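Reopening this ticket.

The earlier resolution said the output was attached, but the attachment link was broken on my side. Pasting everything inline this time so it's all in one place.
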Amino acid sequence: MAPISLRFAGATLGAALVAGPALADPMLADFTYPHRVERYDFQSQGQALSMAYMDIAPGQATKSNGKTVVLLHGKNFCGAPWEGVIPALRDAGYRVVVPDQIGFCKSSKPEGYQFGLHQLAANTRALLDRLKVEKPIVMGHSMGGMLAMRYALMYPRDVGGLVLVNPIGLEDWKAKGVPLATVDELYASSRGPASRVSRRTSRARTMPGNGSPSTTAGWPCWPACTRAKVASAWPGTRRRRPT
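Inline output:
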C-alpha cells in the first residue's frame, strides 16, 4: 500500500470552536465532517450517551479486502482530522470506522464521567460490536495510540493489527527521574499560586483567544493546534498544508 498522506483540519476546527462568545451547539452540528456522521446511543456509568462516528465503505472502484481499520483520534483532535487518511484506506479496499470518543467534538460531553482508557476502549468495543466489526486493525494517534494499545491489551483475540502514529505514553518517566505523584498530590499542587500563574501563561501561549473563558468554554477536547503545530506534528510522514 502506498504511503498515506495525512491532512489535518485542526486549525479549521479550532476556528469553528471560537466562532462566538459561547458554543451554541456542544455537539458541533454546524461543523462539517468529511463523511456522513452516524450515532451510537448507549448507557454508560448510569448515563444515556451518544457516540458519533463515521463508517466508510471501500471505494466503489476497489474490491473490498474484508478488513476494517478503526481510527482513534488524539486528545486535541476529533475523528474529522483523519480526513486525509480515510480515502487512502478506502481506496485500498478497507472499511474505515472513525469514532469521536465520549467527551469529544460531536459525541456526548457528560459533566461527570470517568474518562479512563479502559472505559474509552470498552465504549469503542461496544460500537464495533454494534457494527458487527470483527478483528479490526486499530490505528491510534497521540492519546489515541495509548487507547489503541489499551484496546489491544483488553481484547487481544479481537485485534487484527495495531498501528501507532506518534503515540504518547511509551516513556518510562520514573526511569527518567520524574517522581510518581498521587492524584491528591497533583490536585494540591495545582491549587498553588505558582500553578495558577503557570496555567494562565500556558493558556495564553497555546489557546486561541489567550485562553479566555469565552473561547475555551471548558471543553475537555480543546484542539489547541495551529497550522505550525499541525505541520510539525507528523515527522516521517508526507504532509499537505491544511485548507
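Reporter confirms the inline version is readable. The radius of gyration is 19 Å. Strands lie at 37-44, 47-56, 68-72, 95-99, 137-142, 161-167.
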